[in-house]
Amino acid sequence: IYLLTTQKKLFGKRVLITAGPTRERIDAVRFITNASSGKMGYALATVAKRMGATVYLVSGPTHLKPPYFVDEFVSVESSEEMFNEVMKRYDDVDIVIMNAAVGDYKPKETFSGKLKKTEKELTLHLERTRDILEELGKRKKHQFLVGFAAEVEDFEKNALEKLKRKNLDLIVLNDARKAFSSERVEVFIYNREGLIKRIDEDDKTRVAGGILDIVSDIVGGSSR
Ligand code: CTP
Ligand code: CA
């Protein structure tokens, strides 16, 4: 009975999850990216599915196998592609969990061929990417918005600042130096009032379960 009622806590809910890093192209064979493994996002997708949700996973490039069980798997490369694929689905979902480590900057121009090493020095000009989550916050209607904050200092202050600036319902704070490529993670979950839950260091599937438990407690969902 316990399993039946807790496992399907997201029954009837449509959840959009983003995962992994993005790649911003410099030329035909080079790009700027980050160390995100995608594991946390894929774990969230797995557990959300287990809890009965309809799951759309939008993923940057990872070494993980695309999960066969999600309702839709969308593979993207750049932050711009991720932006478009997320926006396309936004009206049709109840919950968005923005776990992807979206690149903050992209090359101002992408060279179509392969850059030759003709010069002694090369300067790359970068420009800001669009903030997907901030845009979701601006366009928020019925959706429940969950962001992540990858910090290295002033943890709580920065996380709360992002929560407010991006108009989020929850933000999951982790230590960027530890979380990115590791198997285990410790997180702190905040709402507008402050800390609501600390999840001690554990493997990412269990932590995903802890996060989704809180989300489902707030958003509800019929248990079937
Ligand atoms: N995010 C996003 N689009 C971006 C950058 C970030 O949607 N272009 C989302 C991330 O998926 C995450 C949240 O915003 O859920 C916070 O990301 P983070 O990198 O911690 O914060 P930034 O707002 O990018 O600020 P900074 O990196 O300077 O701390
Ligand atoms: Ca960032």
What is the name of the CATH superfamily?
CoaB-like
Order of secondary-structure elements? HEEEHEEHEEEHEHEHEEH
CATH architecture level-2 label: 3-Layer(aba) Sandwich
The structural class is: alpha/beta
Please give the CATH class: Alpha Beta
Count of spatially separate domains: 1
What is the CATH T-level topology? Rossmann fold
Strand content: 25-35%
Give the overall shape. globular
Radius of gyration: 18 Å
* Contiguous helical run count: 7
Amino- and carboxy-terminal Cα gap: 11 Å
Q: Bound small molecules, which ones? A: cytidine-5'-triphosphate, calcium ion
Give the total of beta strands: 12
What is this structure's SSE topology?
Layout (H helix, E strand, L loop, with lengths): L1 H6 L6 E6 L4 E2 L5 E2 L6 H12 L3 E6 L12 E4 L3 H12 L4 E4 L6 E3 L18 E3 L3 H7 L5 E8 L3 H11 L4 E6 H4 L4 E8 L2 E10 H16 L5
Parallel strand pairs: 1-4, 1-6, 4-5, 6-9, 9-10
Antiparallel strand pairs: 2-3, 7-8, 10-11, 11-12
Helix pairs in contact: 2-7
The protein binds cytidine-5'-triphosphate and calcium ion (CA).
Cytidine-5'-triphosphate (CTP) binds next to helix 4 and strand 9.
Question: How does this model look, in words?
Answer:
- With 224 residues, the protein is an alpha/beta fold.
- The protein has one domain: 3-Layer(aba) Sandwich (Rossmann fold).
- Helix content is 30%, strand content 28%.
- Strands 5-4-1-6-9-10-11-12 form an 8-stranded mixed beta sheet, sandwiched between helices.
- The longest helix has 16 residues, at 204-219.
- The mean pLDDT is 94.
